[in-house]
């Protein structure tokens, strides 16, 4: 059976957590530009990752990126 192709932009936007649960995490929107006018605190808050609660989105991501793993540091 051949491997399934991974949707590359999905694999860059989402991560799985390490450990038993393997929650699906995403970054916050608005991080990439227009940051000069924001406060340091606001910019720092963009670094957090948010867990995805919606089962529908989790199912979509698992179809698009079946081999999604936790990010290695």
The secondary-structure class comes to alpha+beta
Give the quaternary arrangement of the chains. single chain
Order of adjacent strands in the largest pleated sheet:
1-2-3
Q: Total helix count?
A: 3
- Calculate the terminal CA-CA distance, rounded to whole Å: 31 Å
Query: Topology as H/E string?
Result: HEEHEH
Report helical residue fraction. Answer: 25-40%
Number of strands: 3
Percent of residues in β-strands: 5-15%
* Low-pLDDT segments: none
Largest sheet, in brief, is: 3 strands, antiparallel
Query: What radius of gyration results from the CA coordinates?
Result: 15 Å
Look at the structure and give the mean pLDDT.
89
In one word, what is the shape?
A: elongated
Summarize this structure briefly.
The chain is of the alpha+beta class and 73 residues long.
Written overview of the protein:
The chain is of the alpha+beta class and 73 residues long. It has a domain at 8-30 and 37-64. Helix content is 30%, strand content 14%. A 3-stranded antiparallel beta sheet has the order 1-2-3. The longest helix is centred in the C-terminal third of the chain and has 10 residues, at 55-64.
SSE layout and pairing:
Blueprint: H1 8-13, E1 14-16, E2 24-27, H2 40-45, E3 49-51, H3 55-64
Antiparallel strand pairs: 1-2, 2-3
